[in-house]
UniProtKB/TrEMBL annotation:
GO MF annotations, alphabetized: methyltransferase activity
InterPro entries: COMT-like (IPR016461), COMT_C (IPR001077), COMT_dimerisation (IPR012967), SAM-dependent_MTases_sf (IPR029063), WH-like_DNA-bd_sf (IPR036388), WH_DNA-bd_sf (IPR036390)
GO biological process terms on file: methylation
Annotated ranges, domain O-methyltransferase dimerisation: 24-99
Keywords tagged on the record: Methyltransferase, S-adenosyl-L-methionine, Transferase
SUPFAM superfamilies: S-adenosyl-L-methionine-dependent methyltransferases, Winged helix' DNA-binding domain
Domain of life, source organism: Bacteria
All copies of domain O-methyltransferase C-terminal, residue ranges: 122-330
Stated name of the protein: Methyltransferase
Species annotation: Streptomyces hebeiensis
Coiled coil ranges: none
Gene3D superfamilies reported for this sequence: Vaccinia Virus protein VP39, Winged helix-like DNA-binding domain superfamily/Winged helix DNA-binding domain
Length: 349
């Protein structure tokens, strides 16, 4: 008897292919920084009119020609740029998502994922696993939302809000179609950032008044967005703390809120909504769901991100249902809302 892994497992393995796969995985950070450099230099915007040589791009963005060529060559091997020969590069479908001026742009998201806050905190990731909690406070001197609220981080906070808005664009169309809000009089978007979700629901439904509840630094952006859409007369933005209290509403929206927090904190937010909801009212939680274990899955990767930067986590449906049951809610409907997200509609239990 030896304690080796059985040979049957070895037989199915190709060590060279496995080594290549691990190298591919461990250079994920290089991939992220390559996307970041493309996004910071706004190279996709310069290629919007058609392919350009690396030297032409370097001249337009004020970067070094040789390193710009190397960056664009790497981006072509990642499927973000096309190589058209003669050191000329164009945009693929993925590359187009790095443009700043298109609906569905992921430009801000790329910058946020590689921004100071996120990158600083990743340095401490093994310690987060060892200790059971995010090391954001150690890395940033504050939890991530307090960090964003500091005046010196206003630009990073605005970028974060913009990236959340862009991600909202991926889900709002389907979510708005799925949510029956025709007869609702008040909708509160809990932690609603710039209000994209509630404002889209208001555009589709002329009756409801909408409100964003968020931290003080975030509410001005929501007011501006409502103004841009001509919805200011039915909209308000309140600075507050969803752990303390939420305003009364017939419909609460909680989009990518619960994944930021641990179970006890989620329970506080859900209980606050439950005690303020009007008779017969509802809540819609929008999140990604952890799927089958062991399958390739962006959500388990996002879960590592949540552990790193917040004390939150991605959850499976059973875990969400347990949270709802413990806080006076029952899931009454479930619908896909695009971008890999689902809507979990809740009524009082
Ligand atoms: C992940 S973002 C989601 C934003 C928005 N719901 C969306 O999906 O685009 C979390 C939001 O919660 C807000 N937030 C964090 N802590 C809060 C608190 N204690 N009270 C109210 N809002 C808070 C943040 O400012 C941020 O806008």
């Amino acid at each position: 008897m030896t304690d080796r892994t059985p040979d049957t497992a070895d037989a199915a393995h190709d060590p060279a292919a496995d080594a290549a796969a691990v190298l591919d995985l461990v250079t994920g950070g290089v991939v992220a920084q390559t996307l970041r450099a493309l996004a910071e230099l706004r190279i996709a915007d310069h290629l919007a009119g058609g392919a350009l040589s690396a030297e032409e791009v370097a001249e337009r963005v004020g970067s070094h020609p040789r390193t710009t060529y190397r960056l664009m060559r790497a981006a072509a091997s990642l499927g973000v740029l096309t190589h058209e020969g003669d050191r000329r590069f164009g945009l693929t479908g993925r590359g187009r998502l790095l443009r700043t001026d298109l609906p569905g742009s992921l430009h801000s998201l790329v910058l946020v994922q590689t921004s100071n806050a996120h990158w600083q905190v990743w340095k401490h990731f093994p310690e987060a696993v060892r200790s059971g909690s995010s090391q954001a406070t150690k890395a940033l001197g504050a939890d991530v939302f307090e960090y964003y609220a500091r005046p010196e981080n206003a630009e990073e906070a605005a970028l974060f809000a913009r990236s959340m808005g862009d991600m909202s664009a991926l889900v709002t169309k389907e979510a708005v179609a799925a949510i029956d809000a025709a007869d609702v009089s008040t909708i509160v978007d809990v932690g609603g950032a710039d209000g994209q979700f509630v404002l889209a629901l208001m555009e589709a439904n002329p009756l409801p008044r909408g409100q964003v509840l968020d931290l003080p630094h975030a509410v001005e952006g929501a007011r501006r967005e409502a103004g841009k859409r001509g919805l200011s007369d039915r909209f308000s933005a309140v600075a507050g703390d969803f752990f303390t209290e939420v305003p009364p509403a017939d419909l609460y929206l909680l989009k990518t809120i619960l994944h930021d927090w641990d179970d006890d904190q989620c329970a506080t937010i859900l209980r606050n909504c439950r005690s303020a909801v009007t008779e017969g009212g509802r809540a819609v939680v929008v999140e990604m769901l952890i799927g089958e274990l062991g399958e390739p899955d962006l959500v388990t990767r996002a879960d590592m991100g949540m552990l790193s930067i917040t004390n939150g986590e991605e959850r499976d449906l059973d875990e969400f249902d347990a949270l709802f049951a413990a806080t006076g809610w029952r899931r009454s409907k479930t619908y896909p809302v695009g971008g890999g997200y689902v809507g979990l509609e809740l009524v009082a239990s």
